[in-house]
Design a protein that fits this description.
Order of helices and strands: EHHEEEEEEEH
Low-confidence stretches: none
Structural class: alpha+beta
Number of strands: 8
Strand content: 35-45%
Helix content: 25-40%
Mean pLDDT: 87
Distance between the termini: 26 Å
Number of helices: 3
Shape: globular
């Protein structure tokens, strides 16, 4: 069975510069990514680490491509996942300015095939996580507040 791809598009009333900061600044990600902090120097080939609320690295990858305020792509490996893969999962953000709004497209590729018995891994888990994270990001950028706590 081939790997799955998850795509999510949202429109955010913000500048590309502010949205870029929100995607790449760990202090910002902690606010909308349910306490998770991203850390990287964002040069191609450098490490991207995602730390949980306790400072433990739970996800890690490598920067694949960067075009500030337009495009960001990196591998995304959940460290507890012991699945042998031919290709690492890849997360890509594309930012397209549209007057006072930015069209944000997220693509998460090379996911495990859909398995509705497993709520944390593969497409099923991603399909529940990314919409909550990006909705929280949109709310924070547009209103200055995140959404009420939700369980993902």
């Amino acid at each position: 069975m081939p790997d799955s791809t998850f795509v999510y598009v949202t429109y955010i009333a913000a500048t590309p510069e502010k949205l870029w900061e929100a995607l790449t600044d760990g202090n910002f990600t902690k606010k909308y990514w349910f306490g998770h902090e991203v850390r990287s120097n964002w040069t191609e080939g450098s490490t991207v680490s995602f730390l949980d609320k306790n400072g433990k690295t739970v996800d890690q990858g490598k920067v694949l491509a960067k075009d500030p305020h337009r495009h960001l792509s990196y591998t995304f490996n959940w460290l507890e996942d012991k699945t042998i893969r031919q290709t690492a999962p890849v997360v890509t953000f594309t930012l397209q300015p549209m007057d006072s709004t930015v069209k944000l497209t997220l693509k998460h590729e090379n996911l495990l095939p859909i398995d509705f018995r497993d709520e944390k891994e593969g497409f099923y888990g991603i399909n529940n996580g990314w919409p909550a994270i990006l909705s929280n990001l949109k709310s924070l950028l547009e209103t200055g507040r995140t959404l009420p706590p939700i369980v993902v």
